[in-house]
Amino acid sequence: MKWQGVIEKFRPHLPLGSDVKAVTLLEGDTPLLPAPRLAQAVGLSGDLYLKVEGANPTGSFKDRGMTVAISQAAAEGSRAIICASTGNTSASAAAYAAQAGMEAYVLIPKGKIALGKLSQALLHGARIVAIEGNFDQALEMVSAIAQQHALTIVNSINPYRLHGQKTAAFEICDTLGRAPDYHFLPVGNAGNITAYWMGYCLYHEAGITSGTPRMMGFQASGAAPLVQGRPVRNPETLATAIRIGNPASWNGAEAARDESGGMIGCVTDEEILAAQRLLATSEGVFAEPASAAAVAGLQKVCGTDQIPVPSVIVCTLTGHGLKDPSAITDVCPEPVSAPANIDAVRKVLKL
Ligand code: AN7
Q1: What predicted TM-score, i.e. pTM, was given to this entire model?
Q2: Biggest alpha carbon–alpha carbon distance for the chain
Q3: 253-312 pLDDT, tens digit each
Q4: C-alpha Rg value of the chain to the nearest Å
Q5: For a Cys staple, 61 with which of 53, 207, 217, 218, CB 3.0–4.6 Å?
Q6: How far is the CA of 246 from the centre of ligand 1 (A)?
Q7: Distances (CA, A) of 69 to 74, 154, 164, 325
């Protein structure tokens, strides 16, 4: 059957009434790409797959949660939604709100969201305020404002978001015909690791899969509250999507880690950029820096020989690289220019 988005595909596993009409951009059904060259490059002998969530309609995994949260909000008669965001949530919320005919209010940390994400929120017509503060402060304000003005919060503290996002775990199991042994992903506000674990457990309890993966979460080392065991007041990383110091789903992330026998570690910005490049050059996949944190984590774990063979490993690439082009142009030299004649071009290309 033609793909109709994650709600129609997984409705029996979602807490939506049968009368709830889907607000959808046909999100989900993203590639699970085998990555043998990346596996080899990081010294992994198992089967590695990339869940390419940048292939969603607004370019990130947030669309899975947003279709469910906004469909429910619309069914409840909500006229406006609000979120705090490091970028991708606001892009997704603004797009789905546009389709639902709702107003979208967005609080972002000033100067700290990638240009691609900001341009999406702008074009979809969100009302945006750039606060002189960080994501954690924005989320606190959103909670207060939402109550005062009866707005629907579409951050991942909205449980419908996590139910939508768990569908990525379903897709992975459906495609592999089993659950992976390890699942790597970046962790910021910690909704996604919580949602994946929920999805894997649900399939296991339903008898669809016989096991669950170890959940391997990675934060940026300048924004690693779950590694340090306490909130970080001034989180810093060039992976602005995960520049978060006090994750809302703290307990969910710890439960996912502990119940699955996994870990939450951290990687430096240098490791993130190197992993982003390795992914792009080895497999031809352009993911944003936050997504590359998971690849850097994989690289780190493989370097210390913790993964037994044979293993099936999935790594979620949460957002598209085009979201944040300046992460590349800020560090790469500009292309050499040449007059428009063949000899000059040949010389530059060293042909
Ligand atoms: C590409 O958009 O929090 O641990 O406000 O955009 O579920 O928060 C984004 C998070 C990873 C972390 N990768 O996921 C927001 C926001 C990308 C992201 C994460 C985000 P969570």
Answers
A1: 0.97
A2: 68
A3: 999 999 999 999 999 999 999 999 999 999 999 999 999 999 999 999 998 877 998 899
A4: 20
A5: 53
A6: 13
A7: 9, 6, 8, 29
Q: Tell me if 55 sits within 8 A of 28, measured CB to CB.
A: no
Torsion over CA of 140, 192, 130 and 225, rounded to 10 degrees?
60
Using most ligand atoms within 8 A of CB, pick from 192, 193, 246, 288 the residue to mutate for ligand 1.
192
How many whole angstroms from 35 Cα to the centroid of ligand 1?
A: 23
In whole angstroms, give the CA distance from residue 303 to residue 305. 6
Q: Are strands 182-186 and 47-52 parallel, antiparallel or unpaired?
A: unpaired
pLDDT tens, residue by residue, 204-236? 999 999 999 999 999 999 999 999 999 999 999
Among 280, 328, 321, 327, which Cα is nearest to 59's?
321
* DSSP three-state, residue 247: coil
Pairing between strand 214-220 and 263-267? parallel
